[in-house]
Amino acid sequence: MRLQYSAAQLRLMAEKLRLDMVDSLHEAGSGHPGGSLSIAEIMSVLYFHEMNLDPSNPQWEERDRFVLSKGHAAPAYYAALAERGFFDVSLLKTLRKIDSILQGHPDCKKVPGVDISTGSLGQGISVACGMACAAKKKGSPARVYCVLGDGEIQEGQVWEAAMSAGHYKLGNLVAFLDNNNLQIDGAVDHVMSVYPIKEKFEAFGWRVIELDGNDVGQILTALELARTSKDQPTLLLGHTTKGKGVSFMENQAGWHGSAINDEQYAAAMKELKERYAQAEKGCAAE
């Protein structure tokens, strides 16, 4: 079933997901804060408005599929799954523990709601293409959603997948590019430029919609447009802020995979709780 959260409710959920992420990452003592925080809005919109899912039946054949191609952003994925009801929210505090189902990268054999294990960059989008192709051939209503990192698209396999999706006219495939222009070694355009992104995907037959990837309203509009594409895969080229919501993490490559100490945790949670309170006011005023 698709939930129909309002834009204000989705903004509130995005802030809740950020609180969950930082809490679990601090508890773990390791992980990837920057690229998890940057996709909070897209995860909120996908899981609480866009995707057709049944948490009580994670393997429902006609469900929409989700692939986190940038698997290191698992804290965002786990937070969305927990808040959506696939497993208890208390499990988020077990992130990266030796006996936990919530490892550093998603494992489809252990985590309810995870459609494919990811982590080796570039492979997720290929799997998403396969899922979309299978659904199209079977006449299934299932749609496939995939989140890519901009550093990730330096991988050649991404472009093989892009070519395949265009060739097979996979109108049921939507990829979201988390374009925060930072990767583990620094700025993407300095490490290995992937620009211009829009023109490259268009050359492979994709419909490309540029947007502010941290703006719920723009994401909702873009996803509605994507549903009108019958014979073209869609790329939502989302310009985002790495570390979004925590001022000292924002636009800092060093927070790609850094641990959060107690002092930083307290400061981050203070900011995020203030953002959550503001979003609550927005819901109340709606």
TrEMBL record:
<dbReference type="InterPro" id="IPR005474">
    <property type="entry name" value="Transketolase_N"/>
</dbReference>
<comment type="similarity">
    <text>Belongs to the transketolase family.</text>
</comment>
<keyword id="KW-0786">Thiamine pyrophosphate</keyword>
<keyword id="KW-0808">Transferase</keyword>
<dbReference type="Pfam" id="PF00456">
    <property type="entry name" value="Transketolase_N"/>
</dbReference>
<dbReference type="InterPro" id="IPR049557">
    <property type="entry name" value="Transketolase_CS"/>
</dbReference>
<protein>
    <submittedName>
        <fullName>Transketolase</fullName>
    </submittedName>
</protein>
<feature type="domain" description="Transketolase N-terminal">
    <location>
        <begin position="13"/>
        <end position="271"/>
    </location>
</feature>
<keyword id="KW-0479">Metal-binding</keyword>
<dbReference type="InterPro" id="IPR029061">
    <property type="entry name" value="THDP-binding"/>
</dbReference>
